[in-house]
Design goal:
With 111 residues, the chain is α+β, with helices and mostly antiparallel strands. 31% of the residues lie in helices and 32% in strands. The strands form two sheets. Strands 1-2-3 form a three-stranded antiparallel β-sheet. Strands 4-5 form a two-stranded antiparallel sheet.
């Protein structure tokens, strides 16, 4: 409707659709106006709807996992670190840094 009213394309519009059975489906919408020769107002619109419910749910679950991970690092009384294959510290909590003589975890990242 926005594209038809304004003549401007709309890209990347995220919409949630509530279905009668109570579920929510997420779609990504792109719309482009169609013009007849010599007309300044669109006479139609081409719309592409892409269903992205699974991607939205995956992002939500990843975010929730990240939150649990950050909470574990922050609240754990134990020193925790994550290292790469070469043994470099990718992340750690403050307890781990202090156990190794550093004041803050940011000082030990990458070592």
């Amino acid at each position: 409707m926005v594209t038809l009213r304004t003549g401007q394309p709309q890209t990347g519009v995220l919409m949630g659709i509530h279905k009668p059975e109570g579920t929510l489906t997420w779609i990504h919408v792109d719309s482009h106006p169609l013009f007849q020769a010599g007309s300044i107002a669109p006479n139609g619109v081409v719309v592409l709807f892409t269903e992205i419910t699974d991607q939205i749910q995956a992002k939500r679950e990843l975010h929730e996992g990240d939150e649990r991970y950050r909470t574990l690092l922050t609240l754990s009384p134990d020193g925790i670190s994550v290292v790469d294959q070469k043994g470099r510290i990718l992340t750690c909590n403050e307890q781990f840094a202090q156990m190794h003589g550093y004041e803050h975890s940011t000082e030990i990242i990458g070592r």
